[in-house]
Design the sequence.
């Protein structure tokens, strides 16, 4: 039957980009976020922060294939219990933006990246992210989690429901045509 195959293909496509569609579950578009708010817990940042010990949650934004260093960050957010990833990102001052069609269900931009006028080079040519509907399946922000000891794993939940604990790391990584395939060690 053709219909079940179509549904299966559609479900597979959505699952493949799964986190992309759920990343911003608790975040609001940058235009509606408060411009100034004191974090509930202090966050510390430095150029060598990724290699420094973090008693809370290490938050990393890596523009990956885009090489937009202005968006990149590594911050330690003080938490003493499991905390929603969306709250940890807010405390780290990481701004996420959804799309017009899906303003809170997915992440289209992180810290303003990719800009609407940025030409993203990919295998099929160039692409500009308008953030109107679904971002391209070949160019998106992926959410990764790393336990205190262990390897990076693709998050199985979005920002609205994912909880991270002290000692863990949380990374938003921009991937184009599957590269980078995972966060750096």
Sequence:
């Amino acid at each position: 039957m053709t219909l079940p195959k179509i549904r299966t293909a559609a479900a597979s496509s959505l699952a493949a980009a799964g986190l992309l569609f759920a990343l911003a579950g608790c975040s609001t578009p940058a235009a509606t976020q408060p411009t100034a708010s004191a974090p509930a817990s202090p966050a510390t940042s430095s150029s060598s922060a990724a290699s420094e010990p973090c008693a809370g949650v290490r938050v990393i934004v890596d523009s990956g294939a885009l090489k937009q260093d202005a968006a990149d960050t590594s911050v330690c957010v003080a938490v003493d219990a499991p905390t929603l990833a969306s709250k940890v990102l807010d405390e780290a001052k990481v701004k996420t933006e959804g799309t017009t069609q899906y303003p809170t269900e997915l992440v289209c931009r992180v810290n303003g990246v990719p800009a609407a006028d940025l030409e993203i080079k990919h295998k099929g040519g160039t692409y500009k992210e308008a953030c109107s509907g679904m971002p391209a399946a070949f160019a998106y922000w992926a959410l990764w989690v790393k336990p205190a000891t262990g390897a990076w794993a693709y998050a199985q939940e979005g920002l609205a429901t994912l909880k991270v604990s002290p000692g863990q790391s949380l990374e938003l990584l921009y991937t184009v045509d599957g590269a980078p395939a995972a966060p750096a060690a």
Q: What stands out?
A: The mean pLDDT is 77.
